[in-house]
Design goal:
- The protein has 522 residues and is an alpha+beta fold.
- It folds into 3 domains: 120 residues, 2-Layer Sandwich (Uridine Diphospho-n-acetylenolpyruvylglucosamine Reductase, domain 2), CATH 3.30.43.10; 113 residues, Uridine Diphospho-n-acetylenolpyruvylglucosamine Reductase, domain 3; 185 residues, Vanillyl-alcohol Oxidase, Chain A, domain 3 (3-Layer(aba) Sandwich), CATH 3.40.462.20.
- Helices cover 29% and strands 19% of the residues.
- The protein contains 15 helices and 18 strands.
- Helix 2 packs across helix 4 and helix 9 crosses helix 12.
- The two termini are 36 Å apart.
- InterPro entries: BBE (IPR012951), FAD-bd_PCMH (IPR016166), FAD-bd_PCMH-like_sf (IPR036318), FAD-bd_PCMH_sub1 (IPR016167), FAD-bd_PCMH_sub2 (IPR016169), Oxid_FAD_bind_N (IPR006094).
């Protein structure tokens, strides 16, 4: 190893016009068993732009003004990732890691402050190994949620995993921030069902749970991606689902009482039994001209039981026999992904997600929003036909898990999460849409959680604050946005960061800053 470091000393201490060849030489030294030239792309490479744009879901960050990676690596094994870490440290470069490219602010593949960085694209690391008889699975970070769901169902139709409804989101991004989905009220978040992981730390070492220790294992399960290392794979605890589940999707216009139903939903969805998940959305074109409400439900049981339950607990919604459908759990995953009755194999298609120029932000609601306020919220959608609100109810097991169990703290009395989303296929529309979503969020200030006003790290929003000092991140400044995502858990995350990556090698505009305190007390 000493000879290897001596060789690297004589390469170049900083990347220059010969960066590609120099970095390639470095990778070859660290990964002699790999053909590294096949995984390294510079900005002058023929396939660079196509590769970079391949999984960028937010078209706002495909412009010429976006600071792009100076090099892209597409590793096929862990040795190549270890080599990438070592070579980046040698040249004073930071690493950003992209699994699926769905992060709303694009922090896995762009820099806001124009700093140089190398991007690792984990598309090739997507293996999934299911152990149905043990009820566990190992999934690499580059695998999509859709691939995971499908492969679990092929092994056992009564096994599943609690994660999101968008099938093209990858495990690396979703699991690092929490993972909210239709099974959350029954089994908790994705991070509540992770048993082990393999991570490459800032020293290039591969660590499992035993080797990394419980503090780091705690941090990577909900502390957000890009702060603590590169998670190669995750060991999951699979959960039981019935052979037959029931779903319904009901649209209600303003004339059909959409506002009153949303108002009532706040009170009943949180209190429902854990087998019932009931989402409420506001969409701008329910009847072609006016906004309305959409209610989507997954019930872990038959339609007869679900209908009886709804008639007792939410009769105002008027769910009838014709609204309810029975199907397998994997088919319900297809349905919630908005693919109707398509063959579940559609979940294997990584290119299904439509790309747009978009903006997202989020809130959490502790106390029900008053009826008159909902009238004002619906008014916002009369002026914009590209905005959406998705609201996922909490309660169930989520209200029983302590806030400190994982970095995700939004449990206990949290009624539901709000995701605000606006998008367009045209770049010319986005400035107006950005103003619209910022105005809507401002209008919600006194209706949602306070001190701090909470947000979900998987719905990243740089308007909440960002790290502007490069690697020299101030903990006090980062608290502005960090405590919104993590509440009191933010300090513990920063302390863990100070232990495992004190030089802040893994960083981005909303990464956890290192906090180094002697005699730490978590």
């Amino acid at each position: 190893m000493a000879i290897l470091w001596l060789l690297l000393f004589y390469i170049s201490p900083a990347l220059s016009e010969n960066s590609y060849d120099a970095f390639l030489n470095c990778l070859s030294l660290y990964s002699p068993n790999s053909t590294v030239s096949e995984i390294l792309y510079s900005q002058s490479s023929v396939n660079y732009t196509d590769l970079l744009n391949s999984t960028i879901q937010n078209l706002r960050f495909t412009s010429q003004n976006t600071t792009k990676p100076i090099l892209i690596l597409t590793p096929t094994n862990q040795e190549q990732i270890q080599a990438s870490v070592s070579c980046c440290k040698n040249y004073g470069l930071s690493i950003r890691v992209r699994s699926g490219g769905h992060d709303y602010e694009g922090l896995s593949y762009r820099s806001v402050n124009s700093s140089q960085f190398v991007m690792l694209d984990l598309t090739n690391l997507r293996s999934i190994h299911i152990s149905a008889h043990r009820g566990t699975a190992w999934v690499q970070s580059g695998a999509t949620i859709g691939e995971l769901y499908y492969k679990i169902s092929m092994k056992n139709s009564t096994l599943a995993f609690p994660a999101g409804t968008c099938p093209t989101v990858c495990a690396g991004g979703q699991f690092s921030g929490g993972g909210i989905g239709t099974l959350t009220r029954k089994y908790g978040l994705s991070v509540d069902n992770i048993l082990d992981a393999k991570i490459i730390d800032s020293n290039g070492k591969i660590l499992d749970r035993a080797a990394m220790g419980e503090d780091l294992f705690w941090a990577i399960r909900g502390g957000g991606g890009g702060s603590f290392g590169i998670v190669l794979s995750w060991k999951l605890r699979l959960v039981q689902v019935p052979e037959i589940v029931s779903i319904f999707i009901i649209n209600r216009t303003l004339d059909q009482g959409a506002i009153g139903l949303i108002y009532k939903w706040q009170y009943v969805a949180f209190e429902m039994e854990p087998d019932m998940f009931l989402e409420a959305d506001i969409e701008p074109n329910i009847n072609g001209t006016e906004p309305g409400a959409v209610f989507q439900s997954l019930y872990l049981g038959r339609c007869t039981d679900m209908l009886t339950y709804m008639q007792v607990h939410f009769p105002e919604l008027g769910v009838g026999t014709s609204d309810c459908r029975e199907m397998s759990w994997i088919q319900s995953a297809v349905y919630f992904a908005r693919f109707g009755d398509a063959d579940p194999k559609i979940l294997l298609d990584r290119g299904l997600q439509p790309k747009s120029f978009n903006k997202c932000t989020s809130d959490y609601v502790i106390d029900p929003i008053p009826f008159p306020a909902w009238e004002g919220i619906f008014d916002w959608f009369r002026s914009n036909h590209s905005g959406l609100i998705y609201m996922n109810s909490h309660g169930g097991v989520m209200s029983e898990i302590p806030e400190s169990d994982t970095p995700y703290p939004h449990r206990g009395r949290v009624l539901y999460n709000i995701q605000y989303l606006v998008g367009s296929k045209e770049a010319s529309d986005i400035e107006a849409y950005l103003g619209w979503i910022q105005g809507l969020r401002t209008s919600m200030t006194y209706l949602v959680s306070t001190n701090p006003r909470r947000a979900y790290v998987n719905f990243r929003d740089l308007d909440l604050g960002r790290n502007d000092g490069g690697q020299n991140i101030s903990y006090e400044n980062a608290r502005v946005w960090g405590e919104r995502y993590f509440k009191d858990n933010f300090k513990r995350l920063a302390l863990v960061k100070g232990e495992v990556d004190p030089e802040n090698f893994f960083w981005h505009e909303q990464s956890i800053p290192p906090l180094i305190v002697e005699g730490k007390n978590y």
